[in-house]
Amino acid sequence: MATGKRGGRGIKDRNLSQTAGIRPYKLDLVYSSEANFLTAKGGGEGTGTAEEGDWFYDSTTNSIKVHNGTQWEEYLVASSLTGDVSVTAAGATTVTDLTMTGEATNEILEFDGTNWVSVAVSGAVTQTGGAFSLNTNLSKGILHFPIGSFAEQDGTALADFADGASPTPGISAGDESFGIRWNNHANPDPVSCSVIIPPDIDTSANATMYILAAKVGATVGDAVTWLVQLFNNVDAALYDADTDYGGTSSAMTGDAATKTCQLESLTITAADLPASQGVMVMTIQPTDGTLGTDDVILLGCWIEYTRVNS
After folding, report:
1. Within this chain, do residues 160 and 276 fall inside the same structural domain, yes or no?
2. DSSP code of 248?
3. Are both 104 and 155 inside the same structural domain?
4. Can you list the alpha helix ranges (DSSP code H) found in the chain?
5. Are residues 108 and 69 in the same domain?
6. Which of 50, 53, 108, 202 has CB atoms 3.0–4.6 Å from 23's, for a disulfide?
7. Are residues 256 and 155 in the same domain?
8. Among 25, 21, 22, 23, which Cα is nearest to 6's?
C-alpha cells in the first residue's frame, strides 16, 4: 500500500526525467517496501515489473531505491547515517571521532580512549614509507664474551692469578671486580673462548668490539693495546678454514690513575662477519711489549653489532 506525500510530483518528475536512466512513474514517491512499489505500479492488475530507472523513497529503510535493470540499488539519506561518520545536506562527510590537525608524513592513527588521533611514531620503532624499522636503542645487538668462559689458548683452564714474572694470566676476583689479570711481561700468553653467532646480525654493517680493562700501575710507557684474533666456525665449512679478521685495539692511557677502568675498541669489517649461523672464536692478549712495568686486568669484552629488521 502506498504511503507518503503525493504533492509536487510534477516538479519531481520533470527533474528526474532529465537524469539519464531514471524514468519516474505517476505514482506516490514514498513506499514502505519494494513490493508495495511494484503493487502500486501494477495498478491493481497484479504486481508490476521493476524496470531500469524505477525509483522510490523507502520509508522503512529511509533510503532512495533505484532499479538498475537487474536489481535495486539503495542510497541512504544523509540524516539516516549513524556512527562515526556524519554527512551534511551538501554531501560533506565528517568523521566524528577522528582528530586530524596538521597531520604529517609517516604519522599513524592512535586511539586515545575517546578519539582517533594522528601521532608521530617514536620510541623503539621508526616508520618510513609503510615499512617499520628499529630505532637505535633496539637496532643494536650485543655479542658478549663471558670472562668465565675463557681458557688459555692451548685449552688449559685459568687458575687464580699469581703475581710474578710469568706470561700466564689468571682469574682476578674478590676485589669488587672479576677479570683476567696479566703480570707485566714482554710476551703475555693469549686466552680464548667462543660464542654463538646471533641470527639477527647484519652482515652489511661494520661491528665494533669493546674491551674494558684496568691497569695496576700508572706507567706512562705502558699504553696497553689488545691483540685480538677472530675466526668463524660455520655450517659446512672446515673449522680451521677461516682467516683471522681481528686486529689491534686502541691504546689505553698509560699514566691514567691505577685501577682506572678504560674502554678501548676495535672495528670489525662487515665483510668479515659470518653470513650464516655458527660460532665465533676469539683470542685476546695484551700486545707484546706493552706491559713493561704495570699489570693489566681484562674486565669485559663484547661486540656491538647492527641488528637486521626482519
Report:
1. yes
2. E
3. no
4. 9-17, 34-42, 136-139
5. no
6. 53
7. yes
8. 25
Residues 204 and 293 in one domain: yes
Are 71 and 186 part of one and the same domain?
no
Domain boundary among 58, 91, 124: 91
Weakest-pLDDT range from 68-72, 76-80, 240-244: 76-80
Q: What angle do CA 295, 172, 299 make, to 5 degrees?
A: 75
Do 160 and 281 lie in a common domain? Answer: yes
Closest CA to 153 of 194, 191, 193: 191
In 3-124 the beta strands, taken as DSSP E runs, fall at 30-31, 55-58, 63-67, 72-76, 85-87, 93-95, 98-99, 107-111, 116-120
Amino acid occupying residue 249: S
179 & 243 share domain: yes
Q: Which of 191, 260, 267 is nearest to 222 (CA)?
A: 260
HEC string for 176-202: CCEEEEECCCCCCCCEEEEEECCCCEC
Quick one: DSSP state of residue 25? -
Position 4 in a domain: no
- Write out pLDDT tens, residues 167-216: 999 999 988 999 999 999 999 999 999 999 998 999 999 999 999 999 99
Which residue segment(s) compose the domain that 185 sits in?
A: 140-306
Single-letter amino acid code for the residue at 295: D
Is 77 part of any domain?
Answer: yes
What is the CA angle 208-213-215, rounded to 5?
A: 145
Q: Examine the pLDDT at 62 and tell me if it is beyond 60.
A: yes
